[in-house]
Amino acid sequence: MLYLLLAILSSCLISIVMRLSERHGKNRLSMLLFNYILCTALSASLAGFGSVPREGLGITLGMGTINGVLYLTCFMLLQWNIGRSGVVLASTFSKLGVIVPTLMAVLVFGEQPGIAQITGLALTIAAILLMNYTKQDAAKINGLWGLVLLMLLGGMADGMSKIFERTGYIQQSGIFLFVTFTVALILCAALAAARHERITRYDVLDGILLGIPNYFSTRFLLRSLSDVPAVIAYPSFSVGVIAAVAVIGVAVFRERFTKTQWIAMAAIAAALVLMNI
């Protein structure tokens, strides 16, 4: 459970950095590039290349490559959907991706959630919708297929950690992360070059600040799956981040909750209790 809490904390810091970076401009791709540079450097320093077994290395390299492609693809899909349907709808469908790895854990890996955990998952989905979604937002949907694709691919990217934990060699988790971030970095650099992306000092600074919690969020979530069943870990991670970011938004950024969002916070609290019974 400790690693899951650390993953939630790290992901919460990602949201804070992204929020603070908004005042510097919208050069997201350049910021993402330097994020991946730092993530790759951190994963290289912590991979332990010389001490891991070589058996199954090809599987680890292949899964890391797929994961890296998914990482950048999901970012580009998120940006595309924000342009089409707005940030609220895009963020909502991105968060709903938690359904994918949770169902994968049950249908593919045979995890057996109890009634409390199933109820907790239902409350998680309800909380995501209540926290982000309104009838006015629904009217802005422009290309439902893109939002659904974002949900599915985002969920698959999250689920790759569980797939690796069950089918790969956990001793090679450092290499798995290194390949993931290296592939994402190469693709991001190629895309930035193709777009002739302008790089500012704020992109470098924000990217570095983003890369630290981004790397550790991925690392801690992967480690947590060895201790906590995925049907508990993924929904708890999702609503835990939402709750932490919301509390910080109120305390630091002076945001105010609507009545619906207070109901969502109550649903999050209930979901966390039920999923951990």
Largest sheet: none
Unreliable residue stretches: none
Radius of gyration: 18 Å
Beta content comes to under 5%
Question: How are the SSEs placed, and which strands pair?
Answer:
Blueprint: H1 2-21, H2 28-46, H3 57-85, H4 87-95, H5 99-107, H6 115-132, H7 135-138, H8 144-167, H9 173-194, H10 201-224, H11 230-251, H12 259-275
Helix pairs in contact: 1-10, 1-11, 2-9, 2-10, 3-4, 3-8, 3-9, 4-8, 5-8, 5-11, 6-11, 6-12, 11-12
What does this structure look like?
The protein is globular. It is mostly helical. It contains twelve helices and no strands. Helix 1 crosses helix 11 (230-251) and helix 11 (230-251) packs antiparallel against helix 12 (259-275). The longest helix has 29 residues, at 57-85.
Describe the structure using short key phrases.
single chain, 277 residues, globular, mainly alpha, 12 helices
In short:
With 277 residues, this protein is mostly helical. The chain has helices at residues 2-21, 28-46, 57-85, 87-95, 99-107, 115-132, 135-138, 144-167, 173-194, 201-224, 230-251, 259-275.
